[in-house]
Amino acid sequence: MRSGDVGYLGLAASLVLIAVALAISLRLALRLERDLVVSVVRGLVQLLIVGAALAIIIDPDTSLVWSWLWVAGIVVFAAATNKRRAPAVPGLFWIALVANGASAIVGFGVAFGLGIFPVEGRTLVPIAGMLIGNSMKSGIVVAERLVEALADGRAEVEARLALGQPWTAASRPIVRSALRVALSPQIENTKALGIVFLPGAMTGLILAGVEPLDAVLVQLALMYLILGGTATTTAITALGSVRRLFTDDHRLVALLRSRRDVG
Amino acid sequence: MTEAAPLFSFESVSVGPPDARRLDRLDAELPVGGLTVIAGPSGSGKSTLLRLCNRLEVPSAGVVRHRGTDVAQRDPLQLRREVAMVFQRPVTFPGTVLDNLREADPACDEQRGAELLERAGLDASFLTRDAGELSGGEAQRACLARSLATNPRVMLMDEPTSALDAKASAVLERLGQQLVGAGTPVVWVTHSEAQLRRLADHVLLLEGGHAQRSGAAKEVPGGAER
């Protein structure tokens, strides 16, 4: 048994911490017990299925087509999640599909095009998961933030529109601020690398017995890919969304959080 | 463009879904000269009517004309620079007052800025003031100056004194009248009967999304009964 092997007994032991979380929830009447149990069971089942499927996909005898299909599935799922979280943006599914797809293309282009990683089943799916997972999070933040800020800031946007500014100029301060909010966590993570934050891939590799320096190189390459991918997704989501929140004749569409006075 | 045409005309204009009309098949005309007051109780559609004039809002049905031309046929950005608007609450942008003026006219220098401020009752020392630190009355006048920076031919004022104290309101009312005196027609929305009596050359009274009465101020005493 290698040092990184957990085994089912080890996994069961780690559930002790879930018991701690349950105890806290009960003691403080947070009513999170059901959510906690559901999330633990769901996560367990999902990951076991993914593990089994990955075992098939990374088999050198399995066609790479299955890996690419998996990647496509991740992109579609990410777009659907994004759409669900910011339903006020018309057509957000398609915007997010393009945005996350672009992140995958840019990320894969660098990772595989420049030969950082070999194109294999065991690299394609995990890299796509990490890349799109992070891109999706930032895409959701930027879309949610845009809708909120445009609804709350309708008075300022309309004051700019009333001066004859086109929607691009009238929305610029809000788009900039939403992009900053969405990208900051990823930038901060990258800054804090190794000091506060020991990222997942590196931790996993070290736990699995890989030399720390090798693990660091893999992690750095991944972090840079993720940062680039996140920036790509966030920019496309923000610009695509804001376009759909204004009409062709430069009016801000009605938004759920609007508080405009009607006299 | 037809010079004899009304400043704005509304032909069977409806706004909002059929079960929640904010304006309902409204027919009205606003004359070219002077200060027109649009009055009515809260929710009567006054602000909606005003927002149709610079196309911040579009009708669900009917036609809005500006000097005879359907506003839907106009370039909305050009229309908004001709038909300027001062809002209920002053919205200043980050930066100095001069920065604010440059949002409307990027070529605005200090001399032109001072001229614009003078027309809005502020002296040139305000140019370098942080717009976020002005009092309510000063901010509303800075917003008026900013709206004037596009050289508008019409000024729409949407309850511009509702967030101001009596003294600041009086200043803004005087500025509105000065604009009219200088040849720029003003359309002023209010729910205050007293303000209507002080300001109006022409009156349009709205109720429940319909035009109740309209005409020269002295012919529409109904405003005083509200």
Can you describe what's shown?
The complex is a heterodimer of chains A (263) and B (226). Chain A starts with 6 loop residues before the first helix and ends in a 19-residue tail after the last helix. Chain A has helices at 7-14, 16-27, 33-57, 64-85, 92-113, 121-152, 154-162, 167-191, 200-207, 212-244. With 263 residues, chain A is mainly α. With 226 residues, chain B is an alpha/beta fold. Chain B has one domain: P-loop containing nucleotide triphosphate hydrolases (Rossmann fold), CATH 3.40.50. Helix content of chain B is 31%, strand content 25%. Chain B is globular. Chain B starts with 7 loop residues before the first strand and ends in a 10-residue tail after the last strand. The A-B interface holds A 155-156, 158-166, 173, 249-251, 261-263 and B 22, 40, 42-48, 54-58, 76-78, 80-81, 84-85, 87-89, 91, 93-94, 103-104, 143, 146-147, 149-150, 158-159, 189, 191.
Short description:
The complex is a heterodimer of chains A (263) and B (226). Helix content of chain A is 75%, strand content 0%.
Chain-wise SSE layout:
The complex is a heterodimer of chains A (263) and B (226).
Chain A: H1 7-14, H2 16-27, H3 33-57, H4 64-85, H5 92-113, H6 121-152, H7 154-162, H8 167-191, H9 200-207, H10 212-244
Helix pairs in contact in A: 2-3, 4-5, 4-6, 5-6, 5-10, 6-8, 6-10, 7-8, 8-10, 9-10
Chain B: E1 8-15, E2 23-30, E3 35-39, H1 46-53, E4 61-66, E5 69-70, H2 76-82, E6 83-86, H3 97-104, H4 110-119, H5 136-148, E7 154-158, H6 166-181, E8 186-190, H7 193-199, E9 202-207, E10 210-216
Parallel strand pairs in B: 3-8, 3-9, 6-7, 7-8
Antiparallel strand pairs in B: 1-2, 1-4, 4-5, 9-10
